[in-house]
Amino acid sequence: MKINFLLSCAFLIPYVVFFICCGIPVFFLETALGQFTSEGGITCWRKVCPLFEGIGYATQVIEAHLNVYYIIILAWAIFYLFNCFTTELPWATCGHEWNTENCVEFQKLNMSNCSPISLQNATSPVMEFWERRVLAISDGIEHIGNLRWELALCLLAAWTICYFCIWKGTKSTGKVVYVTATFPYIMLMILLIRGVTLPGASEGIKFYLYPDISRLSDPQVWVDAGTQIFFSYAICLGCLTALGSYNNYNNNCYSTTSGFMAYEQGVPIAEVAESGPGLAFIAYPKAVTMMPLSPLWATLFFMMLIFLGLDSQFVCVESLVTAVVDMYPKIFRRGYRRELLILGLSIVSYFIGLIMLTEGGMYVFQLFDSYAASGMCLLFVAIFECVCIGWVYGSNRFYDNIEDMIGYKPLSLIKWCWMVLTPGICAVSIEYLSNLF
Q: Rounded distance, CA 267 to CA 307, Å?
């Protein structure tokens, strides 16, 4: 029910409110701060207000957790990609060694020969492929089970690709994203065209356009919208500060912020992040099986998923590396030490991530996904960032710094968001989340 509402039109109302009142102000704050100080996610706070340097450490701790678990999605996608090179997709039919007697191909089902009891216990081949072939999922987190070596090799491939894409810094990454950021749009357009031509598509469109507005009275909906904004745009993770530090001092970070956030609206990362792996590895693969030449479209779809994941992983790793290098420039700005630092972080993150590729690893992944880099921790960081810049360092003073960089002052509304609106909304959201536990 929660996923359906997130995909409905009514969700856009709280989403847009948080986007304007929290997303844009904090996004601009972090980008401008990185450009002004030319420092990474930790040392930038040391320059403007040493008392709040802990904000930087908090963002990098979150980033370190994110580096470990986010790339697991890439490992799953690579596993699916390898299974696409066949004449018939393995999750399209039953009859495989991992399928159970309850597996039912619903598109071939003869309803006249089925009892309600048998249908109640039925599972789809795409679900069984995900749970029994890919994850081999156990009964609970207390049963970690064996390591899935196929997934471990896929994770190794993901980290290897990621390393060689960023080991030379933003110059190498910038060339890679020309492909990884363009191809997904083509694939998404194809899926959109196919989606609207499927039977029942009109019902889905009606659901989107005529949602249940009464759900807006639920505080959880507003909290979901807020955390969704923060995670979707990598706010409060130190990423934007690190990327901003590579800008020229006089780069117009104000217009850049607007352009980037408009660009990001074209990719449904919000849907994938909020609804969990099920949407990417169950719903979409099922839809692909209904298309002609399904192995081809499945291959293209998982390539798209890998490209989208790599883009996000690039930024995560680059942010952490930039923070460490800027803290110890005399050590890591010599020779190939930066490359060795990236290699070390990749190896450590790889071995930590292996626990999520065990039979009980999905439960560990869900813990990381729910508590490590979303929700309350991001809201706390946003509050302290706004308090530091808006009140301690001074919003007027920071506006003067921005004017010195871009030649004019941004809208005054953003300044008031830093001082009052953004921390206030985040505090209310935290209060609500606290009452849930």
A: 12
Residues 6 or more apart in contact with residue 341 via CB below 8 angstroms: 321, 324, 325, 332
Task: Compute the Cα dihedral for 315, 320, 323, 329 and give only its sign.
Answer: negative
Lookup: tokens for 342: 């990236």
Q: Which amino acid is at 150?
A: E
CATH class for the domain made up of 2-435: mainly alpha
Q: What is the DSSP letter of 49?
A: -
Quick one: which of 14, 32, 47, 34 has its CA closest to 414?
A: 32
Q: Would you write out the chain's pLDDT as a tens digit for each of its 437 residues?
A: 444 444 456 677 888 889 999 999 999 999 999 999 999 999 999 999 999 999 999 999 999 999 999 999 999 999 999 999 999 999 999 989 999 988 988 766 554 455 454 566 788 899 999 999 999 999 999 999 999 999 999 999 999 999 988 887 766 666 677 777 778 888 878 777 877 776 766 776 676 666 667 777 777 778 778 878 887 788 999 898 988 888 887 777 655 554 544 444 443 333 333 345 666 888 888 878 877 888 998 999 899 999 888 888 988 898 999 999 999 999 998 888 999 999 999 999 999 999 999 999 999 999 998 888 777 889 999 999 999 999 999 999 999 999 999 998 898 999 999 999 999 999 998 888 887 76
- Rounded to whole angstroms, the Cα distance separating 186 from 171 reads 25
Find how far residue 189's CA is from the centre of its chain: 20
Cβ–Cβ under 8 Å, residues 229 and 19: yes
- The DSSP result for 226-250, as a single string, is HHHHHHHTTTTSSHHHHHHTTS-TT
Would you tell me how many other CB atoms lie within 10 Å of the CB of residue 2? 11
Q: Residues comprising the binding site for Na(+)?
A: 232, 308, 311-312
CB 224 within 8 A of CB 6: yes
Burial per residue of 293-331, b for 16 or more beta-carbon CB atoms within 10 angstroms, e otherwise: ebbebbbbbbbbbbbbbbbbbbbbbbbbbbbbbbbeeee
Strand (E) or helix (H) holding 190 = helix 183-196
Composition of the chain by helix, strand, coil, percent to 5: 75, 0, 25
d(CA 413, CA 33): 18
The single-letter DSSP state of residue 91 is T
Give residue limits of the domains in the chain: 2-435
